[in-house]
Amino acid sequence: MLAVDTNILVRFLTRDEPRQAARAAALMLHDEIWLSKSVLLETEWVLRSPYGFEPGKIAAILLDLVAAANVRVEDPLAVALALELFSSGLDFADALHLASAGESERFVTFDEKLARRAKGRTTVEVTRI
To answer: Which band of pLDDT confidence, cut at 50, 70 and 90, is reported for residue 36?
Structure first.
């Protein structure tokens, strides 16, 4: 199993650097791949910010990626929930933070928008303080 860095995923997903994209595809399509939550988080940011991908497109790309038969993800239940929350309009970082809150009773934040958008979407109560 190979753990891959964000730059491997970005080359594979965007194909913007042909030589690196070919090398990334060779890995991504033929090896068993391990994706950490931090790599997924950074990949979403790179696709959104420097590349300008829309959230809906990023959600679809990440959903397809983690569903691949040869891909294993860190904390798959949290990643699945985070992608569901992201697909429904939450920021991916916020969604991943919430989904990774584990056995916590509450998730506290200063972010009013997050508290409002997350209300009723998770088993963890989101409270703005």
So the answer is: very high
Domains parsed from the chain with CATH numbers: 1-74 (3.40.50.1010), 78-129 (no CATH)
Provide the 3-class DSSP secondary structure of residue 106.
strand
For 62-77, letters b (16+ CB in 10 Å) and e give beebbeeeebebeeee
Q: What's the Cα-to-Cα distance from 11 to each of 16, 17, 31, 58, rounded to whole Å?
A: 6, 7, 16, 14
pTM of the model: 0.91
Structure confidence at residue 37 (pLDDT): 97
Nearest to 9 by CA among 54, 56, 73: 73
In order, the DSSP letters of 38-87 are: HHHHHHHHHHHTTS---HHHHHHHHHHHHHSTTEEESSHHHHHHHHHHHH
- Helix%, strand%, coil% for the chain, nearest 5: 55, 10, 30
